[in-house]
Write a structure and sequence with these properties.
The protein is elongated. A hairpin with a 6-residue loop joins strand 13 and strand 14. It has a five-stranded parallel beta sheet with strand order 2-1-3-4-5, sandwiched between helices. The chain contains 19 helices and 18 strands. Helix 13 crosses helix 15. The protein is α/β, with parallel strands linked by helices. It has three domains: 133 residues, Response regulator (Rossmann fold, 3-Layer(aba) Sandwich), CATH 3.40.50; 169 residues, Rossmann fold (3-Layer(aba) Sandwich); 132 residues, Helicase, Ruva Protein, domain 3, CATH 1.10.8. The protein binds adenosine-5'-triphosphate and magnesium ion. The site of adenosine-5'-triphosphate (ATP) has 18 residues, from strand 7, helix 7, helix 13 and helix 15.
């Protein structure tokens, strides 16, 4: 981050005011500070200058003929300018300044201007812009770092899964993927294929729970013409289609006993016959299997063959349920916001304060799939650029979140509450990356993960430590009076 005064020597400021005297004075003050200045006499003139001059900051009067400062701000945003806006207003129209802040201005100055106030406010605004731009870049980099294929999450339990996947992928070993519904088993199967030397070959999937016994058999092994009523022509099975590639048997726990035997034979001898056929067919297939059922228990109760179980269970990975890794909720939410705001053509930047808390408090019985649906729904319903608690299903909203600026917490809140606000806000700012938030806050990732679990569990705050209100918020923001 560059905070040195040297970096601002080339920063551009656009001064917009209908009073020529004011423009001349500002040009002089800012010019001496090494800024590059352009002037405009009203909003329209300023708007025309924006694309070419591309200022970092705009100092704009609120009341101007033709186009006022607030309209200028709105138009500039529509044009895609990310310049910070500082509004200038006569004492009598402070209300207009408040309106400007609502419209997205960073700050405002009351006329007659005080030289020091101009420089302080401008410096702060520019610093904020740098941070925003840095965060944007970081977000993009962080996203790349924490994505294993399209699987999002940096909880240790999930990293352990990625580790096994990376080691097993290059081999031909059968991998059994376990975990509750919606935990990402299919994504893991895909990652195993894509990381393998077979990546360019077919990846064929069969859902063993979706078909009747007879259909499943001919789906897997194919059938000869006339093998059974309805078998009009010859049909190649999925094993043949997957030759050279990977076959993913989803919901393997639901495969009927008669097919369990046949499957075992293919696994052992790597050959089979089509239904109604006599010719032996040899294939080179890498097998992956997944189930959300307790396969070991099915073996115990005699519903799943033990020998097949051991054949499948060469390498096993178990995906952790979302409730045990709530530290991943922020980055998953951010991932799905990206995904669905693109899909629905909406510009959504993130979560409004308090929303993350509601998402953390939920237990997610449907795991990531449920979270994905909740975010998709919220993106569809969202009326602003941030998802709010109102966009969540009623069951998730819980008690009304406290919507207070961090400054408003102090004094009067406990240190624990302040820390919680700091952690949640920072996570919201960095797109949910716990490691980036840890870096900013100067604490460990483990502490953040631990705290998120605590907030998620609604754990009572430990101890009775009260904040003493000196936690470093500078009070030099104009208060409008
Ligand atoms: N870690 C993750 N990162 C991003 N998306 C995920 C993650 N885990 C799951 N998803 C998404 O959640 C949805 C459900 O995942 P998937 O289909 O892999 O679950 P599953 O474990 O196969 O569930 P089921 O047992 O119900 O078939 C998919 O849309 C998937 O893309
Ligand atoms: Mg699945």
């Amino acid at each position: 981050m560059t905070l040195s005064t040297g970096s601002r020597t080339k920063e551009r400021i656009l001064v917009v005011d209908d009073e020529q005297n004011a423009r001349v004075a500002l040009r002089q003050i800012l010019g001496e500070e090494g800024f590059e200045i352009a002037e405009a006499a009203d909003g329209e003139e300023a708007l025309a200058l924006l694309p070419g001059f591309a200022p970092a900051a705009v100092l704009a009067d609120v009341r101007m003929p033709r186009m006022d400062g607030i309209t200028l701000l709105k138009r500039a945003r529509e044009q895609g300018s990310d310049a910070v806006f500082v509004m200038m207003t006569a004492f009598a129209s402070v209300e207009a300044a408040v309106e400007a802040m609502r419209a997205g201005a960073e700050n405002y100055l009351v006329k007659p201007l005080d030289v020091n106030a101009v420089l302080v406010v401008l410096d702060k605004a520019l610093e904020k812009l740098r941070l925003q731009r840095d965060t944007q870049n970081l977000r993009e980099r962080v996203r790349e770092r924490f994505r294993f294929h399209s699987i999002v999450g940096d909880a240790p339990e999930l990293q352990a899964v990625f580790d096994v996947v990376k080691r097993a992928a290059p081999t031909k070993a059968t991998v059994l993927i376990l975990g509750e519904s919606g935990t990402g088993k299919e994504l893991v199967a895909q990652a195993l294929h894509e990381e393998s030397p077979r990546a360019e070959k077919p990846f064929i999937k069969v859902n063993c729970a979706a078909l009747s016994e007879t259909l499943l058999e001919s789906e897997l092994f194919g059938h000869e013409k006339g093998a059974f009523t309805g078998a009009i022509g010859l049909k190649e099975g999925r094993f043949e289609l997957a030759d050279g590639g990977t076959l993913f048997l989803d919901e393997i726990g639901d495969i009927p006993p008669s097919l369990q035997i046949k499957l075992l034979r293919v696994l052992q001898q790597k050959e089979f016959e089509r239904v109604g056929g006599t010719k032996t067919i040899k294939v080179d297939v890498r097998l992956l299997a997944a189930t959300n059922r307790d396969l070991a228990d099915l073996v115990k109760t005699g519903r799943f063959r033990e020998d097949l179980y051991y054949r499948l269970n060469v390498v096993a990975v178990t995906l952790p349920p979302l409730r045990s890794r709530k530290g991943d909720v922020p980055s998953l939410v951010s991932h799905f916001i990206d995904l669905y705001s693109k899909a629905y053509g909406k510009e959504i930047k993130g979560l409004a304060p308090g929303t993350l808390n509601a998402l953390l408090s939920h237990d997610w019985p449907g795991n990531v799939r449920e979270l994905e649906n909740v975010v998709e729904r919220a993106v569809v319903l969202c009326k602003s650029t941030e998802l709010t608690a109102e966009d969540l299903p009623p069951s998730l909203r819980g008690p009304r979140p406290r919507e207070r600026a961090p400054g408003a917490l102090i004094p009067g809140a406990t240190l624990y509450e302040i820390e919680r606000e700091a952690i949640l806000r920072t996570l919201e700012m960095v797109g949910g990356s716990t490691s980036r938030a840890a870096e900013i806050l100067g604490i460990s990732v483990r502490k953040i993960q631990y705290r998120l679990k605590e907030y998620a569990a609604g754990a009572p705050e430990p101890g009775g430590d009260r904040g003493d209100g000196d936690a470093g918020l500078d009070g030099d923001e104009p208060d409008g009076r």
